[in-house]
């Protein structure tokens, strides 16, 4: 009499946050045999500004940012695809002045409306915005849809006094 045993493993996948995107599995099965190769792809919900930030859980070392990720089933695997929809706003100035940011946050959720106001120092004028926005509208209102780097450009102005010398 010969007893034959097979090892079956379960692949559990989820997303964090749940609404951040979807996961596709190839082949998509309820259980896998020892040595089965599986590919798991994270598909972020880009319509709502989400992007893939990496895998957590039972991730093979060095594969934390692979997308798709290749797995060889030799144990039960619990895998989490992580997504984010927050972005950074970086501002700078050329010349002398400052930028007021409303709201001023550490990071901005996709779709947040932001107002930038350029405030020139005395004897300076605001000229324009450059970087990820352009133009000379002040204040400037825009919607966060990605990481943004924006510069306010100021220049000095001089008053030319002309006098006549009567002769």
Mean pLDDT comes to 94
Shape from CA axes? rod-shaped
Secondary-structure class: mainly beta
* Count, helices: 0
> How would you sum up the major sheet?
3 strands, mixed
- Report the sheet-strand fraction: over 45%
Helix content: under 10%
Number of E strands: 16
Termini gap: 129 Å
Q: Order of SSEs, N→C?
A: EEEEEEEEEEEEEEEE
Radius of gyration: 28 Å
* Strands ordered across the widest β-sheet: 2-8-6
Uncertain spans: none
Outline the structure in words:
This protein is mostly beta strands and 167 residues long. The chain has no helices and 16 strands. It is 0% helix and 53% strand. A three-stranded mixed beta sheet has the order 2-8-6, with no helix packed on it. The chain has a three-stranded antiparallel beta sheet with strand order 3-5-7, with no helix packed on it. A three-stranded mixed beta sheet has the order 10-16-14, with no helix packed on it. The protein is rod-shaped and about 130 Å long. It starts with 7 loop residues before the first strand and ends in an 11-residue tail after the last strand.
